Request: fold
Amino acid sequence: MFILETIAILLAFTIISTMIATIIRFLYYKYSAKQMLKRKNYYEDEILNFLFKNKDLVLSQENIIDKIFIEQGIKIINNFSGVLRKKLSQKFDSLGVSDFLYKKYLNTRQYSEKEYLLYQIGELRSLKYLNELLNLDHHKLISQKIHRGYFFALNAITNEWIYELEKDKISIYIDKIIEIIEIIEKNHVISLKRLIEVLMNDTEQLFNYFMNHEDVLNNFISKILKSDISKKSKGKIFYILSVNKIYQIAPILSEELEKSSDFETNNDEELEYLILLIKSCGELSSEEINKWIVSAALKGKWILKSISAKYLYTNPTLSNLELLFNMLFDKIWWVRYNSARSLDKLKGLGFPYLIKALESNDKFAKDIVSIFITNGNVYELLIKDLKNFDKNSDFSQLGLIINSSSNKGIVDKLIREPDISEEVKIEIIKLIKNNDFIEYFQNELMFIHKNPVFSPYAKEKTLELLALKESAHATTY
Reply:
């Protein structure tokens, strides 16, 4: 009876202690959250107070300090995101900074300064001048070669305020993007690569908006497809959307590939478009469009095969694994390389196929596989197994890896691997059969003999392997 009462008291004490600890923890977290909010508000107030105190600096257009002030303000704004960044942007607008910059933009005749001012307006995320930017003459911007600054400003402001904008404004923004691309293509004033870099800059909010507003996304894609921009530009835009995981474009990619499914085309523009479409399919890694990656791998020119091999690992079906294995024996180096890389990314799933390639008589396949076994994800699997090995373990697979390739790096890495036991390293050394290997590793193996970390037994075995009969000469190293 006494034991039962004791247990009951202990149990009650435990429950009460747990409840008290939970309450104390809750109160502590609540207090901590309150303190963090207080510090955040204080920090925010300090920044805004600083801006108000220095308002007069902005109003003095002749003073060099206005430039320094604005640049420092831009740095402050870009240290934050979300609501605080919007609030800081609006505060700069209220101080007249955006008015100052835009007025200066209109008055200056130096094109380089115009572009710099547009960049600053973009960095400030000034919603106040979005309408003015949307109404600027793009042909004039192109002729003045300030389109990069304009495009950056338009993109940065729209991305920052997209959830606060009306849909008609967003529609105008989309039209402007397409219009700018069309003008740029006709005038050849900026590389497409550079244009895409600008479009990709700081657009996380824009792509999130697309994901949550399918009607706006469909409107954007519809306008892209109907526009006069080149197929290459269209493909680049699809690729941007796919990199940002806009899965809604998967049916569009399928439709476009249905129209352009000649994977052996000699038309350069058509081939570039196919490349971008296949890369877009790979980035989305959706089962419904995997068939196009497989088709390109089976029927396409070498460059399409190479790109397909790069993405086949995203859908590791048995047929795709077999296809990747077969592509290890392709005559084109890039096809073999991307196939081996895909199998390496699949780690345990891909490892058997890489070993199978080493068992073949194809020197080129062996060489490409050995690169990834030495330096890729598969090496980690190899080390994990060797950690549990002893001298009586089965080293046949490791012997195949070491002796079936001209890559000497694998042995060099293994004998220096700290997680492999000494006796296993000796067995690894004994696996070397190729005379060239032995000659190459003579100095490497002597490292073991000379290094005091290794035991006399290890030194003896290295001497034995190297057939160094004169032990007296050997001990001088």
The first helix runs from residue 2 to 53. The radius of gyration is 33 Å. The chain has a mean pLDDT of 76.
